[in-house]
Amino acid sequence: MFLPLIRSSTKLTQIHQIHAQIFVQGLALQPQLIAKLVDLNFLDYARLIFERIPTPCDFSRNCLIRGYTLNNSPRESVLLYIETLHGGTKPSNFTYPFVLKACSARSSLKEGEQIHAHVLRLGFISDLFVNNSLIDTYCKCCCLESARQVFDEMKERDEVSWNSIISGYIQWGEVEVARNLFEKMPIRRNVVCWTAVINGYGKQGNLVEMLRLFREMLTSDDDVVPNSATMVCLLSACSNLSNLEVGRWVSIFIDVNLLPLNTIAITALIDMNSKCGNLEKARKLFEGLSCKHLASWNAIISGNVQHGLLEEAITLFYTMKEELVKPDEITIVNLLSACAGLGALELGRELHLYLGQTNLELNVIIATSLVDMYSKCAQLQDACLVFVKTSIKDLALYNAMIMGLGYHGKGRDSLVVLTQMERAGARPNDITYIGILSGCNHSRLIEEGRIQFSNMINKYGLTPKIEHYSCLVDLLGRAGHLEEAYDLIQKMVIPPDSVIWGSLLSACGIHRNVELVDKIGEIITESPNPNLGFGILLSTIYASVGRWKDVDRVRRMVKERGIRKPVGCSWIEIDGSVDRFTVQDTTHVKCEDIYETHQNLVNHLKFEGYAPHVDLITRSIDG
What we know:
It is a single chain. The chain is an all-alpha fold and 623 residues long. The chain contains 35 helices and 2 strands. It has a two-stranded antiparallel ribbon with strand order 1-2. Helix 9 (128-140) runs parallel beside helix 11 (159-171). The protein starts with a helix and ends in a 16-residue tail after the last helix.
């Protein structure tokens, strides 16, 4: 009578009523009641009943161990197993799969090895399910040697045995070992096994072999059909390598073969299209999701941030909040990057506050994003505070702090952080020295700039990139060391770009070195794609010394080549809303008010007697 009622129960109130009747009538249905409570995730109630049974059966104990393991309480699962041993009760073979799964969840190799010893002592080493669980545990605890030993000593193996050992090798990057096992399988290779090896090549970035194996899967005698997990592996590999061509091929394959996709696979499609720059397709897929979970929001927000659509990313975040989806670490990091790019300090502070309110861990990744955001929003004191309060610092965090200090003219402070970094055992990289040299440049630390450039090459064996040369050339040029800067450019191990030549050209204009201007001007005008700004600067310098023929020559060159300056753009944040401005824009909702205010400011400056410095300004090159 009560057994069907227990099986059909879905609410705690129903269980309470049934439990009361069982207790009153003295029926021995506690094991079934415990099993039902575990299925409904009422583990505390199940444990209470279990504790009051004088001699609980193996079934009840195993139900509780399974419940703890599957409900993210692996510690409780292991403790109950230990309690069983101390009570003198012999576990059964059904006990071990979930106890070993709990060890995997805790990444506890020592506990797994101890339980393996119990398995040997109690005579369960020939049990197929126990052996499969041992392989899985050793693989997840990165003990592939022990996993392989268990596998090799097994008298009987099934698909799970092969899948577990192959997936273990794939997980830890041993793709070729996994492939050799895969090719030797004496039984039918199922879709799980095929997908695991395909995923291994995808993680390596070997798209050629990944696709070759996928095509082999479609035509193999195993007669397997790819599933959503297979598609996710293919799409993830395309996302990581930003390979839109292969990604499109996978997308077309899905459409042509009418493969059913779950939400995870659709999210992988969104992520692939986003990272590969096909944001229109990504947005269409995203809008088509009936249930948008956090991963799909993160995929579309991340794609917009990655491709510079920062305002759109923030708009998506506010929509996400309206739909009561709570952000996680990935969301926060992407949004802080958007705030840094837009100078959206108010939203950045809001996100920082959210971290404290929700007890999200302020780990080194988020700390790095916060330091970057505060630095780029000109709140260097807040950036320093986050940096100091972060106990575990990695290279990225040191770099973010050094870059922030450098760009704000705190060159000496950036050198102090570099010293701290070296003492902590972190090895500087090329990004570190971009920040250091930038700091030296902004702080006019000429000798320190020379020393640090030398250290980068001779002490750390780093090859200078264009950014490093640019910083040092600008530093030397502004200080008047024009010939040294020119010699540095001549000795560069990589071809100098227009920015470096433009930097030295600007310095020559300041220090009136027209002879060097002629050399640089020849290089700039002969380049296939000269920069309009440098053309204007060159024309201006010639005009300042009365060389009008050269002015006309440069102006004519610019017009003949049809060089145009990119449209300027800026942002400002007011009351949490980011407004975007472009040159000669007439689309802003307050366009008339903006231009009127601008004209009022110009008139006020004139009234106050302000006269602009026009020594190095010439007429419009299009005039």
